[in-house]
Design goal:
Layout lengths: L2 H26 L3 H17 L9 H43 L2 H16 L2 H11 L4 H8 L3 H26 L1
Helix pairs in contact: 1-2, 1-3, 2-3, 5-7, 6-7
Length: 173
């Protein structure tokens, strides 16, 4: 099917059967989410047009596609919400841990992150990945660098940050 033909079929179907999509969207989502779902449903119908067989009524086909897409959307939203909830719980745990540390440790950590933000973007990425425990091999693959180059760069970065830490601690004494 040619894209122009697909667009014509889609326009006709939306004119005749958009109410189906609205009902499904409002039945599975509320507020702004229903608008997002409506877009997902319209996209699903547009993508499904080439597989439509004329034995079925168009309305039946649109219902089937819309319900399947809505169920998939709902499942992905639930999974997304679960990930967000886990992330927020981890963030709160980290905040509690930071609250338990002394003000001096917080200042040092803030200072360190400020120095990291001053680094060039690639250097910043390398040091943050390293601090997150990502292996040299994975860092090399992410940045398209040789593993030995990652190691050399990180060694220099750690030395620069360490020297800066020594300077600040000497100034505080």
């Amino acid at each position: 099917m040619q894209p122009a033909d697909q667009n014509n079929v889609f326009d006709r179907w939306m004119t005749e059967h958009s109410g189906i999509l609205h009902h499904v969207a409002r039945g599975f989502a509320a507020g702004e989410d229903s608008h997002d779902l409506m877009q997902e449903l319209m996209l699903a119908v547009w993508r499904a047009i080439p597989v439509y067989r004329t034995e079925a009524k168009v309305s039946t086909f649109v219902y089937r596609v819309a319900h399947h897409a809505a169920l998939t959307w709902k499942r992905s939203q639930r999974n997304y919400r679960g990930r967000v909830d886990r992330f927020e719980a981890q963030a709160h745990a980290i905040e509690r841990d930071l609250d338990a540390k002394s003000a001096r440790e917080k200042e040092t950590l803030d200072w360190l992150y400020a120095r990291i933000r001053e680094l060039a973007p690639v250097e910043r990425s390398l040091i943050l990945l390293h601090l997150d425990g990502v292996s040299y091999a994975e860092i090399a693959e992410l940045h398209g660098l040789a593993e030995s180059n990652v190691g050399a760069r990180l060694t220099r970065l750690k030395q620069r940050l360490s020297d800066a830490m020594k300077e600040i601690s000497d100034e505080l004494r």
